[in-house]
Amino acid sequence: MRPGGLVALTNKIENYPGFESISGPDLAMKMFDQAEKLGMEVVFADVTNYELEGDVKKIITPEGVYEGRAIVLALGATARQLDLQSEREFAGRGVSYCATCDGNFYKDKIVAVVGGGNSSLSAVLYLANIAKKVYLVHRRDTFNAEAVQVQKMYSLTEGENAKVTFLPDSVIKDLEGNGKVEKMIIENQKTKEISEFAIDGVFVAIGRRPDTGFLNGKINLDKGGQIITDENMQTNVAGVYAAGDVRSGSLKQIVTACSDGAIAASRIIAYLNKR
Q: I want to staple 257 with a disulfide (CB 3.0 to 4.6 A). Which of 153, 186, 198, 244 is the partner?
């Protein structure tokens, strides 16, 4: 019920042109307010289905049916999970998927972050300013993240009072606790050694799953479930475009999502003019 998608869940953004540093929620609201002032009409509703064939596209919601001659699918993505039974049991009771949302609940406590990409390292850097101790659990010993993020993380692992402990080549096998997370069970993938760590919470940051379930085979997807488009953001269905993290091959950055949207809007104008 707020604009921005993953942007609104990002604590600090330092790679968007024009802003040396800005919080995700602030940037999202600036974009949202600007678009409203330019005439955008906003509807907050759950989408339950799509009808994308034909000249008129329909968006089905409990609030009504919304129609348009063209549509941009900017569906974003949701957090991937560890697929542990204990993860589901402790959801909201020590298991979180958003450090900037829930980090303040763990002031001066011990937490773990799972993952090796930009989102997981951003979570580590954010939580290191709040928590007493941060464990970073990653199934490999190398990272799929920007070098500057990796360097910042390693700087926090140094010294007697290091705030971060890196656990490479490791996965969480289980979570334990009485009503809330109190312990994580770790397995080293190379040695198969099992270790236990007392923690108060775990933040899962292992990527996002594109929200394309309701498309029901109407739109071509890649093997990861992302929408396939051409260079004009056009899908396999006439009048249907895609932009942002849900698009196959996208860089998964705010600036490229904006670029996708601009290209899609331009091509929609040309598409409608031809018709």
A: 244
Dihedral sign, Cα of residue 191, residue 192, residue 197, residue 199: positive
Taking only the tens place, the pLDDT of each residue in 26-53 is 999 999 999 999 999 999 999 999 999 9
Which residue from 134, 102, 92, 132 is spatially nearest to 115, judged by alpha carbons? 134
**And the tokens for 23?**
């919080």
* Residue 36 φ/ψ, nearest 5 degrees: -60, -40
- Residue 273 φ/ψ region, left for φ over 0, alpha for ψ in the -120 to 50 degree band, beta for the rest: alpha
Q: Give dist(CA 111, CA 182) in Å, integer.
A: 10
State how far the Cα of 205 lies from the Cα of 215, in Å rounded to an integer.
25
DSSP string, 100-131: HHHGGGGTTSEEEEE-SBHHHHHHHHHHTTTS
**Residue 200: both structure tokens together:** 């108060």
User: What positions carry a catalytic annotation?
Assistant: 98, 101-102
Closest Cα partner for 261 from 240, 244, 238?
Answer: 244
Give me Rg for the CA atoms of the chain.
Answer: 21
pLDDT band at residue 250 under the 50/70/90 scheme: confident
Identify the three-state secondary structure at position 6.
helix
Give residue 8's pLDDT band: very low, low, confident or very high (50, 70, 90): confident
All domains in the chain, ordered by first residue: 43-77+208-274 (3.50.50.60), 81-204 (3.50.50.60)
**pLDDT tens string 52-97:** 999 999 999 999 999 999 999 999 988 889 999 999 999 889 999 8
How far apart, in whole angstroms, are the C-alpha atoms of residue 154 and residue 149?
Answer: 9
